[in-house]
Amino acid sequence: MIAPAGSPLAIVRDPSSARHLDPPAWDRLLPQLRRLHLHARVATDLIRSGIDASLPPPVREHMRAGQRVAAAQERSIRWEVDRIAAALDGVGSDLLLLKGAAYLLAGLPNARGRLTADVDIMVERARLPEVESALRAHGWQAVHRDEYDQGYYRRWMHELPPLRHAERDTVVDVHHTIFARVGRYASDPAKLLRRAVVIEGDPRWKRLCDEDLFLHAATHLFGEAMRNPLRDLLDLADLLALMPAGLAARAAELGLTRPLFYAVHFLDKILGIGAPKDCRSLPRPGALAFRLMDRLGTEAFLSPAPRRLGLAARAHWLRMPPHLLARHLARKAWKRVRSRREA
Amino acid sequence: MCPVRVGDLASDRFAALLGSTGAGIRTGPFSLRLRSRYRSVAETVHFLYADFPVDEAASFADLQVEIRPANGLRRWIRPQALFHLDGEPLFEPYPGRLAVPLLEWGLNWCVATLAHQYLMLHAAVLERDGLAVVMPAKPGSGKSTLCAALAHRGWRLLSDEMALLRPEDGLAWPWPRPLGLKNGSIDLLRRFAPEAAIGPVWRDTKKGDVAHMRPPRESVERAAEPAHPAWLVFPRWRDGSAARFDATPKADAMIRAADNSMNYRGLGGAGFETLADLVDRCDCLDFEYGRLDDALAAFEELARP
Lengths: 343, 305
Fold this sequence. Notes:
Mean pLDDT of chain A: 87
Strand content of chain A: 5-15%
Order of helices and strands of chain A: HHHHEHEHEHEEHEEHHHHHHH
Structural class of chain A: alpha/beta
Oligomer: heterodimer
Largest sheet of chain B: 8 strands, mixed
Number of strands of chain A: 7
Helix content of chain B: 25-40%
Strand order of the largest sheet of chain A: 3-4-5-2-1-7-6
């Protein structure tokens, strides 16, 4: 896929192409980068490589601001992770960092300028009650007060309802596995925990092994509504570069071959990154499913304002079996009608 | 050649610009491209921003803002206005009749969340003979009233809302904008400075009645000139109080200033250095006052070499 000059895609694929952009091009590009939550990453890349010196002066100001945002985010996640570890000291579970926090503490390249709202952690399912009460005792509180929302997470999802710290306003998502437990990509958490590795910089924490890190990112991207499509695809690109062979075998073991297939497909199609050897003959989805996902995904990665309805519907579909989903959506619709009437 | 100013454009031409491609307006370090079809926005911006330069062929805008009506039923029943930045709505919808306060408030929010090239304090900043007084304060402290009064008595306004301190040079950079006045201080200012150009009063906002005062022309013309911070003043209005300055310990001043900063934490080491430098080079003072005239006399005294 050829990325048009001055598009977000072109700039993340080749930051040095920023040199050739004039002010009108930046006028179009910067708002898009901000919407995609990529401005801090681009700012970090351009400043590190010295390219920012050749940018129009007002754009340099934005790059400086973006770099500061990146640094602030990093500091805040490190501190949050430290506080969570302190709160969970002695709960008797392995503690894993997932996604952004894991990339950062493990020193992986995709952590640079990566903007996230929440810290995601994973613990053993049997220890969830202890973990939750320890966090509550240290100042975290439920974001959703509604009983049904609470139940939705607890019975069907792969995480507790999000908890927000009362003073710092930061949110932690406590997972016990990496995809909805009643969903299509549910995988056995014991298998994930068995191969988790200790994070060198902070041995209180573990993270998923390299392959699982990639597969989790792929499952998250292609199993959910793609809210940060390009950022998440860049995660996959950066992680793939570190990867030994063995993705395909591990995906088969965890039942995650489908998300791996789409990861490989879109890395090639959107970023021009060739598939690793063992991923070149993965079982394909049905022709119709593939065409649908190809269209929805391509639009999500390339369009400045993608329509998300199709992806949101697909994410719901993957997260719950049909009978549960029907009940859940009916319930949500009823609640919307009621709250509108009350308002 | 003088730049074209907003006030130089006929008001209907300005309204047409706002309603189509958007009007480029230079506000201090930030260029704004504003779009809106609200008549209240066109008329009030034309009035309040009259002295601001127009970037007619602006090829790059720092802030791309649109104030637009919410769609659907809300176009007709209790209409609502939305603040769009970068083409996306930022806040909960606001009553359509308050589109102007929404714009002013939203612009502050945008800079507070985007402009991390500066250490930002919620503070009024004014200058005399190259020296700046920085006045951090919480809402309700009488900061804006005092600031509006000083801006009409020989002090150059840099901002009534936000101190922009550059970590590289420690200077205070101007961001002149319309000054927000609330409730009783609207009439107080009218009496105090009959020459002040004050826009419409917007009733029953979240903060009560709100009106905006056009910043003095000089402050807009000199918007590219920074000033050296010399005084860090914590103002407090108290009914019946005589105007007086009291020295406050520098360590306390540092903590109180940090408490009024939007991004002190976010800037990390640079934030600490910049703020410590500010506190170091400034006289740090508490200021209490009951009457504007007394306050102005006290500030005259302060500025005397």
